[in-house]
Amino acid sequence: MSDARPPITQDDSVPLESIGRWPEAPAPPLPAETNWLAIAALATGTTIGWFPGLGMLPLILGLFGHQFAKQNQGSGAKMAIAGIVLGAASVIWALLLLVAPGTAELTTG
Question: Which of 42, 58, 59, 98 has the greatest number of CB atoms lying within 10 Å of its CB?
């Protein structure tokens, strides 16, 4: 007794589900895209933000990056906040450097 069934291939008219194969699962969703403004705010805040006068760049990039993350439900809001904090600290540091020499003259008379 030989089994005289022809082999079933994908080109035959028999659906694949009927021979024990399952259809492929759909692809998983892609992760949310990190916005480049938040990355730039964090990078500039940690590198050039400590030079007096350049702290506005990470501050502005962080504000725009945070707004973009809120509108598009993308990731990067925490990086944007870190850029805002570092930029604000740099601006305060620059203002202290400008004000400190003037106060030294007032106290010495």
Answer: 58
